[in-house]
Amino acid sequence: MEAPEFLKSNDHHLKFCILYEVALKKPIYDSYQTFCEAVGKDAMRYPDFEFWYHRFRLGKLDFDYDRSMDPAPKALIDMPVKVMRKITENLNPFEQCYLRSMNHVMKNFTDSFPTVFESICVEANDDLLRWQLNGNDFECKEVDDGCTFTKPKCLNTKKSDETITQKYNNRVMKTYKECYIKKSLEYLTPLFEIAKLQTNLLWLEMKIQTPELDGLLPVGFNAKRAYIAAYNSDNAVQLLSTLKAGYLESFKIDFNGPMEREHFTIVFETDQFKQAQTIEIRNDVGFNLEDLVNFEHLKQFICGVKSIVEPEEILQIRDTVSTFKNLEYCRIWCSRNGRQIRTLAEVLKEEVPEGLEPLKLFTHRYKNPAFNKTFEFKISDRGIYIRIDILKVQ
């Protein structure tokens, strides 16, 4: 039962209560909780309680002490900007999230600095949505009567595992999918709303089609590297287009079902592709040899081309790739189609010992006279595929 109003307004009575708590030698926060239970939460703010608690603890028992002459107490936001900047820079991304949740002023200050995660990974399946932030695993999974939510024990949370149960009846028709996705978005949506959020690696596996997840990433999201696996080619391109072109240095793209050359014509036209440095495309996508010119701006790439029908087509690959000004390394796959790579060596005029059968690997060096660059071609038999590794050596 709280104290009557006339006692709550009696300054000396409140200070006697504080002095009593000091005499019990309890921790200050526990004392404040007891004080609030006794006289009410609105009787005195914690900063005022803290002032009198420490004053009485030091033996200064003047209840009528005039505080008006004291300098105004400093709050966290009153610290010099240089100090606040230093504190914020030394916080990990999770600690920055806690700091920005304190109040509006701290949110604005924290948002003036980039929040950088080493990795953000999100995987959406038919019965679960899992995400990982800097190696910390979160998971929301469908169960019979709702969904379960699991979060890391290492974070400052009340419980490591929570069960969220939703009961359904004939009047309220909801699916379990809505349950686990809705619960996941309670955490993921605020994460992607953080101003200046960045990650060195963004890993997305969107294996289900649901409108709730289509707008998960903000347009212009900052990711240096990305792996995108989507439920179809349109979704893959949509996810790629949300990433900030120019900031995105490398990406690998994948999606369910067969991948054909036609699916990538729109990828070639995106700014994300045009401004990237490294690209990897699943090796069973067979590009035409003429498509290789789309990769000429890259430092590194991995892709597949259609079968080399005639051995002389290896010369077209060599003469095209050797003109790429920025290229440092690439790997090109093509179907072996029963062809012996000895025939490719003969076209490239490489001598191969006659007794070496079957030939599994040979190296070819080529200097493009027009660009004064030398490339090393390692051509190897990989079963059903022929792999061509091309490295700039000078």
TrEMBL record:
- What Pfam families does this protein map onto? FTH, HTH_48
Q: Which residues form the DUF38 domain?
A: 222-349
Q: Where is the Mos1 transposase HTH domain?
A: 12-59
Q: What is the official name of this protein in its record?
A: Protein CBG02191
